[in-house]
Amino acid sequence: MKKTFLMKRNALLSSTSVSLGTLACTGRFALAFSVLLLLLRFLTPNLFWHLFTPVFRIADAFSTESRLFFNSFGDTAELASQNEILSNKNTVLANENQALLKKETDLEAILGSPATVGNSVSGISAGVVARPPESPYDTLVIAEGSRAGIARGQEVFGNGGVPIGVVSSVLTDFSHVTLFSSPNMTITGFVGKSNISFLITGAGAGALQASIARSANVAVGDIVFVPGPGMLPIGSITRIDDDPSSPSMTLRIMPALNLFSISWVVVRETGTTLFDAFLHASSTSSLP
């Protein structure tokens, strides 16, 4: 009986030792693998993104499917209301675009048509490899680089030609995009029927803001435009913070696109203004 007990006790101790040894070995392997990944990312970033682009895309697809599944249980009345709001905004944008096209036609009649030879506005299409939270907030990683003709300072557009940011660093096959919503990024904007000019500043987490004189005739819902090939809508005013003791008021601007669900972008050269805006941003990062 005593011999049987000792055998069972020894077997239990042996099993525990094996388990602890396995855990220790697994921990060392995980640590070594993590160090290897960090070295790969910092020493050969282009190779890193080539290897892990499929992983990011699979994770993104899974996240999208999960979100759609859970959203399907949402309140249908709320969805209908949101659809109506979006439809109204689209109508407003269409009317604004028609007015701008008429202005452009009038200007061309007065000044003459600009030369378009060699000026392609189609740009370079690129898939989005990583977006927050895979990439730092207010940044994107896109799957085209210097090999495709992308250069630092070029402007990046989302669906419908909506400007979203600037190329901040370039690798051979990948590029890093700093969004206009990045803190301290600035770009000139226009708002209101009289096209009041003001500076739009990134507020972080996909949001924009601007300071404007209290006397300005603006309202919640007004479309905000930025210069480009024409006047391009970048977002709309969702809130106005008005302090009676201040000569100015703060506009809270919602981007026209959901910056964290973009799958494709177009990159093209639009001049030096945006590059200067990028250079003056206080927080600029580059691809590791």
UniProtKB/TrEMBL annotation:
InterPro entries: Cell/Rod_1 (IPR042177), Cell/Rod_MreC_2 (IPR042175), MreC (IPR007221), MreC_beta-barrel_core (IPR055342). It holds the Pfam family MreC. GO terms for cellular component: plasma membrane. Residues 128-267 form the Rod shape-determining protein MreC beta-barrel core domain. Keywords: Cell shape. GO terms for biological process: regulation of cell shape. It comes from the Bacteria. Belongs to the MreC family. This is Cell shape-determining protein MreC. It comes from Candidatus Kaiserbacteria bacterium CG08_land_8_20_14_0_20_50_21.
